[in-house]
Amino acid sequence: MNTVRTLPIRVVPVDGEAIESWLEAIAHRTHTAFGDLLTAVGLSPYNGMGTTAWIVCLNPDEVATISTATGIKPDVLETMTLQHYSGRAVRIKPDARMLSRAFPWGRGRGSRFCPACLETTGGRWQLRWRLGWTFACTIHNCLLADACPHCGAVQRRRTHIGDIIPQPGRCSHPAPDATGRSPTRCGADLTTAAVAVFDSDHPVIHAQRVVNTVLDRDTVTFGVYQTVPQPGLNVLADIRAVAGRALAYATPQDLETVIPQDLLGVYRATAEPSDSRSGPARTDTKPGGTGTGRDCRGRSGSRCERLGSPRRGVRRGYAALAGDLLTGARIGRPRNEHRVG
Ligand SMILES: [Zn+2]
Ligand SMILES: [Zn+2]
Predict the structure, then answer these.
(1) Ligand (nearest to CA of 188)
(2) Which-ligand-closest: CA of 174?
(3) Residue 314, phi then psi, degrees to nearest 5
(4) Which parts of the sequence are annotated with region: Disordered (predicted)?
């Protein structure tokens, strides 16, 4: 039943924003603990905290109460959950509001992020950053960051804790050495995370633009799909299959001949074993596998060595890079760039 009241202050979602980012922004703006804000918009903090159900999909009652409380139209709210990408970039289990892990590269754990986007928007998170297929920012031409530059925690694996006021753009994970029921937060400025930056016409940025086009369309009609258009889901499956083949049959030396050296350097730096630290879970490498490299951009000093460093999924990360490049090479790639295969 819709029993919520209209909030006194309205915050408009930014284009492409994830719903939890927007709700956190409202809580911050109204100086409200996040759990209280959830209650105010009709999301139960007891059912909602610690889960990702309403990040995946809102049920009709939730859509109604959030819309009433915030003044944002239901059709806009429905573009702010992963349901928006259902059947295109993720597959949602019926009646469970959970994502199928069988979907190819459907979603990594948590959310990657573009530090520059966080800085320019005041700490607002794009829904697209949650997708396993999003590895770069095509606005700032950089790979996305995988984790907090200070504590190494993958961001947004769960909803924000309920008993504090969110601080947009800051790491809300417990501080590495914090203890107790309400441990001190890390609080690191995520806009300072170092990421590799490329030219706008670099193959990896071009590959992300192509993938974005696939994600945004129901049917793909370009490149090799001109003659027989295919659903985006089939195209993503093709990309993954091609990447798998490339890895199965190519040696590292073979891949070196087709992957740009700067990108290869980033990958190698990321894939190297790190000095092991206890603490929050670190990231697996999926498409992107980012964080370190020669082109690191760290606006508060060198933090390159503290990012990424996946200890698992190295080959999957290589597959991602190969797949990205194959995508860029095979579909609408500029003619003067190196061609794969
Ligand atoms: Zn960006
Ligand atoms: Zn942190």
Answers:
(1) 2
(2) 2
(3) -65, -45
(4) 270-311
